[in-house]
Amino acid sequence: MNTPEWLKPGIYGAVIGAVFVGVVGFTWGGWVTGGTSNDRAVAMSRNDVVASMVPVCLDMARSDPARADKLATIRAASTYQKRDALMTAGWATMPGTDAPDRDIAQACLKELDL
Fold this sequence. Notes:
By secondary structure, this protein is mainly α. The protein has five helices and no strands.
């Protein structure tokens, strides 16, 4: 099949334009791949779960009979060990789970203002 000579510049322009639109879209246009979109959705849902569990942690802290001793232990810990001390206190272990959650402990610590 013979293509007309006037068609080649149009085809080249369409290909170059498609590449240009793709590059601009992914760099400045905010386009993302499916994997990046999934990673962002997982991170956002994780943040929402942590935010929804902080009141449970605070309630556990308020209703704990040994609250004063545990708070003293957490306050006495260094800045880097406060989260671990709160996890040891058991307030970051959510009902139905066996282990404390580090992210929930960090968020709860921030709300306890320690």
